Batch of 3 targets.
Target 1
Amino acid sequence: MFTNSHAFSGFSTNDLDKARDFYKDKLGLEVSEEMGNLNLHLQGGGSVLIYPKENHEPATFTVLNFPVDDIDQAVDALDGKGIELERYEGMDQDERGVMRGEGPAIAWFKDPAGNILSVLKA
């Protein structure tokens, strides 16, 4: 039924300007605006819609994952941009906030609206 559909994902924000600056300037993604929304243009042709929502509540789960070849280099880059990694009780995260050993190495961080993102070893 949807074999030829160009599906995309989306999530909300409480501040479109902060979201644009974060995704474009801090994460270095290609961002466009259309009809009051942001479109993130991802490697490989995928896209994510970010839309303003007056009563926005941050997602309590990871909404966007960024696979990388070198997670330590990615964590350094996030740190260099002032982006702090999240720490979760009960998770076996190292001193930098990276969880290693159970699946791919992964670390979580939040966008300005509090949505959870991750960087993980590809």
Target 2
Amino acid sequence: MEFPNTSASNHFEQRSLWKREIANYKDVPIAGILGDQQAGFDGQTCFEPGQAKNTYGTGCFLLMNTGATPVLSKHGLLTTVAFKLGGQPAQYALEGSIAITGALVQWMRDNLGLIEKSSDIEILARTVKDNGGVYFVPAFSGLYAPYWQSSARGVIAGLTRYANKGHIARAVLEATAYQTREVVEAMELDSGHKLETLRTDGGMVGNDLLMQFQADILGRNVIRPLIQETTALGASYAAGLAVGFYKDFGELRDNWGVDNTWKPQLEDGARQKLYSKWKKAVTRSFHWVE
């Protein structure tokens, strides 16, 4: 097959441009290499065992520092390397992956047309005072941590004639918080560390209603940092430490700041009642695909 001369010319010019760009960086060292979630973990300065961050995106990815000894999970989590600096021992983490969180908001927007843009979900959810007994388990392609149920499928439970689109919107947001609590509980059981606070980042952390409910259902403080692009921040931290731009972890901790903190406002009895209903709804999603 022959390509038009214009395409061949453009291709040649593009290759020449890339060669010139590469030549400009030939003496620049590669000082840090991190995975996406590990970079976010470092950007949140989770350098001590028991510290954890949760990234709220299309899905959720929660990591907890477990120190220099890898912890093999017995509760549906993954063991991963958190970071390794120079000749120091590697530090490990437990990771819990949740498949559908922000993607559920997109589904509300694109498939049901109940909102025009993703940020409208909070406005709609605030039209009601609670979930009205409605629970949404977004097992669209199964459930990830801590269940690993590939045969599960999505269900909306607790519907009555009283329920409206505001209750469904609220159930959509609450599903993210409930799934996060399940992963946190599994991490505490595996690691032996009780989570004190949860550091958050990702596209959904601008939703104040979600962040407050996350604190309520966890019974812990939830913190949003000043710099929320934590993946890029963590990569720059690793490179900066490697070349001596940053002195140590202490300097990085000093650079980390709080934008907002949400404190639990629910009484423990109400918290447990809501969570038990969620756990009941989750079981209804199991084994749908035979």
Target 3
Amino acid sequence: MTAHEKYMKYALTEAEKAYEKKEIPVGCIIVYKNKIIAKAYNRVESLKDPTAHSEILAITSASEYLDSKILRECSMYVTLEPCAMCAGAIVLSKLDNLYFGAYDNKSGACGSVINITNNKSLNHKCKVYGGVLDKECGFLLKSFFEEKRRSK
């Protein structure tokens, strides 16, 4: 198992917490100098806040930890390709690296639908690596939505 897969497993643990709370199961961690400094899972439903995506919550937590709005030397691991809002926050926080699990062909903003994290017009570009433990990450999301459809 690579270090990136190990960190993605921590993000999957966060996604499982979201699943248990009937939130869309996306989990995220942020690593600084080989230490996890932030972890979060989607809390949109419980907080009744459309911005409470795991990435936004993790960025806020990492910024508090480092006492900085700039997250240089940090890497984010998230189980689903970030949306436009989260990709924008990744650029604004100047994260160095983004590792994500499952691709999001409907609203992914890190290469699938649009590419905010590497837009040449923006002042920061983030190195992006997709597909880390994509099967495991995708399975959790697929299971969640299948269960949701069955319970309607």
